[in-house]
Structure formats: structure tokens, C-alpha cells
Amino acid sequence: MTASLQRRTFRGAVAALGLGSVLAVAAPFAAAQTLANLKKKGELTVGVLVDFPPYGTTNANNQPDGYDADVARLLAKDLGLKLNLVPVTGPNRIPFLLTNKVDLLIASLAATPERAKQVVFSEPYSTAIIILYGSKKPDIKSAADLKNQRVGVARASTQDVAVTSSAPQGTEIRRFDDEASAMQALISGQVDVIGCSTAVAAQIARRVPANTFEDKFVLRQQEMAMALRPGQNQLLKTVNDFIARDTANGELNKLYRKWLERDLPAMK
After folding, report:
1. Which of 230-234's residues contact partners 24+ apart within 8 Å by CB, and which partners?
2. 24, 227, 232, 259: which sits with the fewest CB atoms below 10 Å from its CB?
3. Residue-wise pLDDT tens digits, 72-130
4. Half-sphere exposure of 220 (CA within 13 A, CB side)
5. Is 159 found in the same domain as 243?
6. Is 116 in the same domain as 54?
7. Are residues 137 and 67 in the same domain?
């Protein structure tokens, strides 16, 4: 059997076994990005959300903006690199990282144990309070009160995980492709409440008549970290040094106040 035929036969077997996606994800690990690689390239490519304001949004020119984008700009400046911001969504942000479409993620990603099986997390650079928010009519004070309620969440988000793990049987959880879709579902009455950050709740409140919606209860306070591919130890140290330095000197707090109008909460 020729080498060419062997390769074709192997690819056919992989396809038949349904392993193509596994290999596509696993392959990039063999060539982890290093700081030297980035310096040689002269560019840092960062994945950011654009549907999670004010952490991730777009500006008047439809370019990525928000707290996370500003943190990425500060990091690139610190490294002396040109910045390339790539919009990602909740469901595709980790696949984008694992398939080398971005060098790292600054995408409001909570460092959960499940996600840590796929990526390596930095020290936290930000935090958000996740609440259940919605119509005043349903009397909802805890997760137990969600039975028979329609709850909207952005698919694969921290609030999705929080609601799914705490909601009782009989809760109707509706998952949307992004934060903006979940917000619109609440405003249009498709759901009774949504899981969202306090920042998103404030944005919704500005778009509807006063006293339309209210905070129900806190789902969790999440600390958000940057995510890197496994094996990027030197780059991880550089990122952690940046976070420690710019937390201590107040630069991250300046950006947090710019976008959230409050001080950056204390983190671990």
C-alpha cells in the first residue's frame, strides 16, 4: 500500500469512527504558542465577546469594544504588539482558542472546573454578579420558585450553568445563541426571567419603561479569567504578571470604572 493510499485509508477510518472533530481539536496542542512566537509575529490575536455589554460590545464603527476589548488593548500595549480583536460567541469561544484562531481569550470566561479540562486559565482580571432578572409579576425569591417559569439564558454561559444546576424539575429553560437574543426574549415576553449580569440588567432597564423588571436573586458572583491553550506556560506567566501589575497600579480599575461605573471588586 502506498503512503498516499495509507493516508486516505486512515482519514476514511477516522471519518467512519466520527473522530474527525477530536483530531481537529487535539492537533493544535502540539504547537503551543509562545511569547517568542508572538514577538516574531508582531501581533496578538484575542477573542472577545461582542454580545455581553459592557464587557463585550461594538462601537459606532461596528468594531469590538467594551471592558474586555480595552483590557486586550492594554495587554497588547504592554507586550509591544499589534492587536487583532476577533469576535467570538459563548458557544464558539473555546473552540476558536483550541483550533488556533486566536492566541488567547479575554471573553468574560468564568474559570469553571469543566472548562479547565480544555483550557488553562489566568488569574482573574474581572468579576461580574450574575442575577435572575425579569418581570415583577412572578414572585421569585429563590431557585425553588422557578418551577413552571420560563427562564432564558445565553447558551453555554455561566448563567446557563447556574440556572441548569439549581432550577427544580418543571422549569422551562430556554437557551439562546447569545446574550442579545436572551435580552430580547425577555423584553418581548417570550420568557418570564433571564439569567444575566447586573450590567446587562441595567442595560435592559434603560430600554423599557421604569419598574418593568426587577432583580429576583443572585445566582452567583463569577470571577473571569483569560484562557490559553495548554502548554503555554511562559505566556501564562506573562499574562499573570500583567494582571497583577495592572491591578496593583489601578489601570484595570480605571477601565472597570469606565465601563461599569463602579470599582473593580476585590478578587482572590
Report:
1. 230/29, 230/32, 230/119, 230/120, 231/29, 231/32, 232/32, 232/33, 232/34, 232/104, 232/120, 234/34, 234/35
2. 24
3. 999 999 999 999 999 999 999 999 999 999 999 999 999 999 999 999 999 999 998 88
4. 15
5. no
6. yes
7. no
Output the pTM of the full model: 0.68
- Structural domain of 255: 32-127+223-260
- Cell numbers for 216: 429576583
Q: Which amino acid is at 132?
A: L
